[in-house]
Amino acid sequence: MIALDTDVYGEFVRGNAAFTARILLIPDDERSITIVSAEEVLRGRLNSVRQAEAQSSKLTIQRAYALLAETINNLRGKLRILEYDDRAHDLFSNWKQQKIRVGTHDLRIAAICISHSVKLISRNRRDFEKIPLLDAEFWN
Fold it and tell me: Is the whole-model pTM more than 0.90?
């Protein structure tokens, strides 16, 4: 099983040809995303809706809602969403006590991947290399 980090999933959604080609080599039933990455993606889409409502965006409200619906459908139908379970929380808490200097969301993403025994695909080598036991592959 492979978990796409938020940055890699974003490149896929934006149609980056190189990332899309590599992701499509991963069998459909092996592709996943953590609940934390799903939250980050949805927050971004919801922020786009708010900006469109306030007319402080290049997007129309119609386009912002269409992108939100597309994102929900993609997350729901094309990727397995990995949950933040008790084991992930224990790993996260342990790393926080160790004062590993990585952002909260990235620590949770790593903990979920270890808890579910999946490899993380990310562009964020700088942070994820600091996390013990994490199986990660870094794409440029």
Answer: yes
